[in-house]
Write a structure and sequence with these properties.
single chain; alpha/beta; Enolase-like, domain 1; TIM Barrel; 2 domains; nine-stranded mixed sheet; 12 helices; 36% helix; Enolase_C-like
Length: 369
């Protein structure tokens, strides 16, 4: 069996009302997504998504004519492309979906088959006022979620603490709470400086008081020494890594004791092929491996298969902040949105590959390239 073609299409979903992400100073009036399809001479097609595939154009010949199951070979080529150009890891996801279809097995089983379900945490995305945020947390408990991540990024972190207190007062210990401090990276137009170590320690003391499970991205992504010192200074767990670009950076975060929780995204770095190494390394060092999943529904599904197959995560991120970030918006590429069961778990299908289908009519209607 040989790869005969790779097709890449771009899609844009208008957002009305807009989505105001906590990490972005500009409201989002549209949502862009890229779909990658890898087809073989036997008519099977694997699908992937999650990043824009910038820089891949002109490199198709490095894969066409090759055996699709040479996943390690393809990973090394993609790693080279990533160094010289852009992050093209959605192709790795498509190759794993294809491998599952060739084998007649779901990807989570190909990866080791630790289980067919993963507990989730509801990952909010907006800076709502305290009352609205508390109401959202109450809604999440009713949907079966056992944990929720709350975003910080108000002008004064003390106002963030006030919103967090409102949630804790409303739901008590019915929800495990995590906080994303949004200090690790910025959008291109956002020049605000990140917190310094002593800022982060001061915030961490407040989070300890409120029994927060982890504080995410509390310092600049490159400040591993600061994260290590912060981890040694406080009891709240330190989480990081969602936009990290290189696998060796995850190795260093883990082996240097900089984090308690590592959060790579298979759609953004390493693909499934690379991140299964990181999942094993994290477990060997007693570090929680739980992927970031804020790309789209197909990226979420790929990370869920990785976690279910080889990881040992207490839960995985489930982006959900209705109505501005609904399942229908997040998963507009898919024939049916991905949802949790009554216990807040993602239950993975036993169908080959990722076990999901694209919404071809919606893709045609939203195609921009």
């Amino acid at each position: 069996m040989k790869i005969t073609r790779i097709d890449i299409t771009q899609h844009r979903l208008p957002l009305d009302p807009p989505f105001r992400a906590s990490w972005d100073t500009r409201s989002r009036t549209s949502f862009d997504a890229t779909v990658v399809r890898v087809t073989t001479d036997e008519g099977l097609t694997g699908i992937g998504s999650g990043d824009l595939m910038l820089g891949f154009d002109g490199h198709e010949h490095l894969f066409v004519g090759e055996d699709p199951l040479r996943l390690e070979r393809h990973f090394r080529v993609l790693d080279n492309i990533s160094f010289h150009y852009g992050r093209c890891w959605p192709l790795d996801l498509a190759l794993w979906d294809l491998a599952g279809k060739i084998a007649g097995l779901p990807v989570w089983k190909l990866l080791g088959g630790r289980g067919d379900r993963v507990p989730t945490y509801a990952s909010s995305g907006m800076l709502r006022d305290p009352r609205q945020l508390a109401e959202l947390a109450e809604e999440f408990t009713g949907r079966g979620f056992k944990a929720m991540k709350i975003r910080f990024h108000r002008d004064d972190w003390r106002d963030d603490i006030g919103a967090l207190e409102a949630v804790r007062d409303r739901v008590g210990d019915r929800l495990m709470l995590m906080v994303d401090c949004n200090q690790g990276w910025r959008m291109p137009w956002d020049t605000a400086p990140p917190w310094k170590l002593k800022d982060a320690i001061e915030v961490a003391r407040e989070l300890e008081r409120l029994s927060i499970f982890w504080m995410e991205e509390p310092l600049h992504r490159g400040d591993r020494e600061g994260m290590r010192r912060l981890r040694d200074s406080v009891d709240v767990r330190i989480a990081a890594g969602e936009m990290t670009r290189e696998l060796y950076e995850f190795r260093d975060l883990i082996t240097e004791g900089a984090v308690d929780v590592v959060q790579p995204d298979a759609a953004l770095v390493g693909g499934i092929t690379g991140l299964r190494r990181i999942a094993v390394l994290a477990e060997e060092h007693g570090i929680v491996f739980t992927p970031h999943t804020w790309t789209n529904g197909l990226g979420l599904v790929a990370n869920a298969h990785l976690t279910a197959g080889v990881g040992c995560a207490p839960f995985i991120e489930f982006p959900f902040d209705p109505p501005q970030w609904s399942l229908e918006r997040r998963d507009f590429l898919l024939a049916a949105p991905v949802d949790v069961n009554a216990e807040g778990e993602l239950v993975l299908p036993d169908r080959p590959g990722f076990g999901v289908a694209l919404d071809e009519a919606r893709l045609e209607a939203t195609r921009i390239g």
